[in-house]
Amino acid sequence: MKKQLVYIALLGLAAIPVSCNDFLDNEPITEVSTNVYLQSENDLAAYAAKFYDDRDDGEHTSNILPSHGSGAYHLGLFRLDNGTDNQTSNVPSKLFVKGLFHVNEENSNLWNIYMKKIRAANYFLSKVAPLVEQGKIPGNASRVRHYMGEVYFFRAYIYFTALRDFGDFPIVKKVIEENYDSVRIASRRRPRNEVARFILSDLDRAYQLMANVPPMANRLTRDCAALMKSRVALFEGTWEKYHRGTAFVPGDKQWPGVNAEYLKRYTIDIDKEIRYFLQQAVEAADIVASSHSLYHDYAALFNSVDLNDIPEVLLWRRYGLQTGNTSHHWVVSYLQRNGCGNLGLTKSFVDSYLMKTGLPVYAAGSQYQGDDTYQHVFDQRDPRMDKTILKTNDLLSTSPNLIEYIKKSDGYGYFYRSPIFEGEVENSCPTGYSLRKGLNTDGSMQPTKESFTGCPVFRAAEAYLNYIEAYYELHGNLGGKCDQYWKALRTRAGMDADYEKTIAHTEMEKEKEDWGSYSRGEQISPVLYNIRRERRVELVAEGLRLMDLKRWRSLDQVSNYQVRGINFWDQIYQLYTHPAAVDASLPLKPIDIVEYGNSNKAANISAKSDKYAQGKYLLPYRKSKSNIGFDGLTWTTANYLYPISNVEFRLTTAVPGSNDYTTSSIYQNPYWSTEDGTLPAE
Prior knowledge:
Shape: globular
Distance between the termini: 33 Å
Strand content: 5-15%
Strand order of the largest sheet: 8-10-9
CATH topology of the domain at 2-67 and 102-291: Serine Threonine Protein Phosphatase 5, Tetratricopeptide repeat
Number of strands: 13
Largest sheet: 3 strands, antiparallel
Structural class: mainly alpha
CATH architecture of the domain at 2-67 and 102-291: Alpha Horseshoe
Number of helices: 21
């Protein structure tokens, strides 16, 4: 029990092994005595580096910062939006299926994980900050300050993930004493607005301490802190705006913290808090957007091996074969295999792309050709679409392997049809819209070989989007630099920059498939919707969609929702039943299509006659009754926040070992029970 109570740090107190990491190219420091550790510039650099790659902490296998991972067989960063209206795997997220997400679900252990990581940061800061203030750390003073700033950044980032997942959270600034009462008191949750303010203060400190140019490549800069500040402030400002009047915002009578004795004197001016966070978001976003231009080549941001010379990229993860720091991923390998990886983009997302002229597809005079073929879907659309989704005849690999369509004339591999009938789930695309974002066609990264493209972690385009949204939410107009930043995004994309034309031709009734068109169960204004649309298209497959939908309170109306894919039954089905790939070196095999409910054979596709198919569309969850998404997606209000695991209540009761969880120093999130295995009340 003591081990559980103390929330063991990433680095032990007797001997501190520090492994090299995949973000950085530095030599590892192992078996360093605490008597000398954290006493020099190199010690600080090594400790801070640990936060970039903390997969070996014994329990958690993913890093604090998002990336493609290391040697894992998946689509890395690009898979993180699965389970939203943007993209899906062959089964939906359990968050959208009633009766499947319980207290003590796998995500519930995040509380303990976050506390352990916070402890590691606090250990460093408690040891280093006094020494830095006294000038007792030998080495370059600016680099010493930078490494301390990195740890402030990571503490803020960890706290933000905790805020996103749990809302109210304990604010712990020092290492907790190893006794029951100390842990119990330190575990008291603070209202989310206080947590968000604490995060911003850490990011301010990180910004002050870190340099514009880091001491070594692939490390944080002060602008990373500014970008993160804009993300956190926008998140909290919009969360409080759209969730006000509910149990998810402090001060409401339904808020569970209202019954906590230690919070009885807590008060909040919700309007003031919203304004504060939105203003902070505007100012922080402008710091980054005003000093970082957008790179001219959108595709290169995701498919390049080296991102070092792209000013838009503030931080990226390097992969390669450097001596002593070998790392790779398999993202390109999957993408060259017809854009598979058990990821499919949705019809809802594809429909959100504007025409190159800036008009919605349904607008009069848009010249939209329909969705009966890949060519028609893509014709004259926002150029980002062509760089995000595969279409017939797109080059996949200069050295093809396991690729169906190969042109005789050059021997290269080309995309012909999406692998929706692939027997191996990991090599399939459930919707028929295959991902292209991140595709590098170099034959050295063919489907049977490791991938080495860099992974962008922070890029300035987000700051442009954060500024526009925060400014509009704060002021109700597109003043300030909104026009400049929005037009810059459109211009870089290669489309008409006149967003006013887009707004004027937007019909909200025709945008209902986009969950982001809603807040509080009602559709929003065309102006705000198009701000969100721009964000959706620009940042697709970068892991921010579910976070956005939650802060906007855009999931209330999701009930029995059926995800749809390509228009399969008008013409595209012929690519599978009667393949006729021009100039193919080998003929493609026809596929025997078995519709659900139309045969005694096991179905391999949803039925054309399915009431949700409209006689055209692929339904990824409705080719088997056993699929948890067969009856559609339904959001449960409680899932805006994760439940806290029962173990946390057991460890914080007034009497150690008591089963009276009402005496715990913490409270459960809205609509969740403190008992393991229970479902939410709402």
